[in-house]
Amino acid sequence: MPRPLEPVSQSTRITLGISFFVLFVAAWAFATLGGFVSRTFLADPITMVQDGWLLLTRFGFLSDIGVTVWRVVGGFILAAIIAVPLGILMGAYKTFEAFLEPFVSFARYLPASAFVPLLILWAGIGEMQKLLVIFIGSVFQIILMVAVAVGNTRRDLVEAAYTLGSSDRGVVRRVLIPANAPEIAEILRLVLGWAWTYVIVAELIGSSSGIGHMIIDSQALLATGQMIFGIIVIGIIGLISDFLFKAFNRKLFPWRLA
């Protein structure tokens, strides 16, 4: 047994990660191909791959994937543009925090799915409604997490800046933001993962395209292979975006690894 918190090599990490997926697919195949679970309720891996290939080659599923990616990225960027500055202000200035924090703490517990009926009334069933669902699901989380990160900045850095004659605005610009930039980037990476859960909620109602729309259509046909394929595609895209975000953060903030 490994010791608690003992690091593992990169090759071991990759091997163990792949092993879990292999065991998962093997258990899935055993349950479905072995007849323990009805294929009406859970398609086997072979059927899922065949249905996925048909979706990609005959039913234009690539365009649905593109639409969903656009919605996630668009809603997330809108949320980040507004949330990051507000979070920095809340973390830096306690009066601003006292003014906004109660509402932000309240709003972050509101499920984005609960706003879908209202957003359809306000924005219709077009792209704006779907972007707003992702925006609402992401913006309050980012604000609060960024505010906490900035508020926990080492006080000796701030005091040193004041000792060297920095102004209040200079402390924010030259100390608080650079010191917390890696943490803010990590927060954005985490919330981007949450945004993928909100887009499916946005696409379940009043949508004519996207991965969520395909899943709902497949449900009506009891095509569980297509449904599972859509879910797996979301996971793969999310995993790719997560790896890209991590690589970008390592490139942009190499000192964070120290």
From TrEMBL:
SUPFAM superfamilies: MetI-like (SSF161098)
Pfam families on file: BPD_transp_1
Compartments, record wording: Cell membrane
Entry keyword annotation includes Transport: yes
Membrane topology: Multi-pass membrane protein
Source organism, top-level taxon: Bacteria
Transmembrane segments: 12-31, 69-93, 105-125, 131-150, 195-216, 228-248
Keywords annotated in UniProt: Cell membrane, Membrane, Transmembrane, Transmembrane helix, Transport
Domain ABC transmembrane type-1, residue spans: 65-245
Family listed: Belongs to the binding-protein-dependent transport system permease family.
Protein name (database record): ABC transporter permease subunit
Natural source organism: Microvirga arsenatis
